[in-house]
Amino acid sequence: MAQAEQQLTKVARALLRATESGKIKWRPGDGTVFQYSAGDSSAVIRSRDEDGVQPYVFELFDDQGVAVESLMTRWFNTPDAPWEEGGEPADWNETLEDLYHAARRNALNIDRVIGSLLKSLNADEGDDPPF
Q: Has residue 129 got a pLDDT over 90?
């Protein structure tokens, strides 16, 4: 893994840990884009094809909103289409996929929505829903 890829993977893992522990808040962007800002930089995780699945693109931006680095999920034996599965996955694929889903849950408050629905169903039924 090249140095830039190692650094970006390290940042993505740190963001994933902070997201899962509730230390940071992501904001939803257009469609399948989620952004975290801190100080004079920001990070974006997105589904490249806007379908919510791989390939995922992780980008870092400076204080002017200029993309300074990026990392995308890829497979190594498909040079013509690195986003197609079927080859050896890059070391960072799982990290980017986990970050995407954690950022999405965080930005869209999915746990709060589910909790609210379950609370309302339990209040009406007096028990867990039959599913």
A: no
- 126 — alpha (psi -120 to 50), left (phi > 0) or beta? left
Q: Nearest-CA neighbor of 60 among 10, 21, 2, 1? A: 10
Total number of domains constituting the chain: 1
Give the pLDDT score at 76.
Answer: 75
Beta-bridge mates of residue 67 = 61
Tokens (6 digits) for 22: 């509730």
Range of the domain at 102: 3-125
How sure is the predictor about 10, in pLDDT bands with cuts at 50, 70 and 90? Answer: very high
DSSP per residue over 97-110, as a string? HHHHHHHHHHHTTH
Percent of the chain residues past pLDDT 90, beyond the cut: 73
Query: In which residue are the tokens 């870092």 written?
Result: 60
Neighbours of 18 (CB within 10 A): 16
In a domain, 131, yes or no: no
Whether 74 is covered by a domain: the verdict is yes
From the list 57, 50, 44, 42, the residue with the least C-alpha distance to 97 is 57
Q: CB count, 10 Å around CB of 80?
A: 5
The pLDDT score that the predictor gives to residue 33 is 97
